Amino acid sequence: MLEYLNETDPARFWSSSQSALANLGVSSVCYATILSRTEAELKGLAPSLHHRTTHPLEWLAEMERDNNFDYGLTLEDLDLFLTAPVIWHEAHKQGLNSPDAKRLYEFDSDLGLAVGATIQLSGFDGGGHFSAMGLAFQDAGEQNFHNVWATNETAIRHICNTLDARLRSTQSSLLIKLSRREKEALTCLAAGYRPEQIAERWHRSNKTIDKYIQSAKIKLKAPTRDHAVAKAIMLQLISP
After folding, report:
1. In this structure, is residue 183 part of a structural domain?
2. Is residue 239 assigned to a domain?
3. Over the stretch 70-120, which tens digit does the pLDDT of each residue have?
4. Among 166, 171, 204, 213, which is least packed, fewest CB within 10 Å?
5. Are 87 and 114 in contact (CB under 8 A)?
């Protein structure tokens, strides 16, 4: 089960870690991280969040629509919300008097995501970032979930903490997939080149270089070139 610890290839690392979680009863996951509290304060939770998930595509589309990833939470909520695991079916039942909560519960149930838990991996007070993992236990059922969780929680947390560390460092390409040209453009910016100088150096048009930079900004959720460069360096996506 621990083969994933020695994987250096990002894709194989992700696949191996998911297999290890599956052996512990986890049917799918959603990893989410916010790299900077300041960024979240300025932009909001959902616009600052990067994620990778194996949940069904229908769920991902719903969460990305209108930035539903924040679940209505505030930055202050994150400091308290995940001090203990959030058990999905228990949390849903506490708030089903809300039409939106009832709709979300029914939607999750249809996709096999009614039973599971969300755990915090890092808080802003710890390493300057926030990260959490949502873990679905589709086959456990509400009655058996607590037995499965009590038996496997320690091993699950170990795998999730390893994922957290690597997805923000050596395997960060799993979170943000920059193309070769996007990386090269950001690297040149980090080295002090202006876009028109990059265009001249590469024998490309200014419009082409701007396209690389703009697509990198979108993937990094960065409003400016400087912010995109800073995040790419932080995630070790480029080495200027």
Report:
1. yes
2. no
3. 777 788 777 776 778 989 888 776 655 667 767 778 888 899 898 999 999
4. 204
5. no
Based on the fold, state whether residues 184 and 153 are members of the same structural domain: no
Q: What are phi and psi of 228, to 5 degrees?
A: -60, -45
Secondary structure class of 11 (helix, strand, coil): helix
How many residues does this entry show for the chain? 240
Q: 82 with 41, same domain?
A: yes
Q: What single letter denotes the amino acid at residue 49?
A: L
Tens digit of each residue's pLDDT (9 = 90 or more) over 2-57: 666 677 788 889 999 999 999 999 999 999 999 888 888 888 888 899 999 999 99
Are residues 121 and 34 in contact, defined by beta-carbon separation less than 8 angstroms? no
* Cα 154 to Cα 2: distance, rounded to the nearest angstrom: 14
CB count in 10 Å sphere of residue 213: 22
How many CA within 13 A on the CB side of residue 235?
Answer: 27
- Per the domain annotation, does 7 fall within a domain? yes
As given in the structure block, the two tokens for residue 146 are 């607590």
Contact 227, 235 (CB under 8 A): no
Does the global pTM surpass 0.70? Answer: yes
Domain range holding 81? 3-173
Same domain, yes or no: 126 and 200: no
Is 36 in the same domain as 145?
yes
**54-93: b (≥16 Cβ within 10 Å) or e:** bbbeebeebbeeeeebbeeeebeebeeebeeebbbbeebe
β-pair partners for 51: 32
Domains in the chain: how many in total?
2
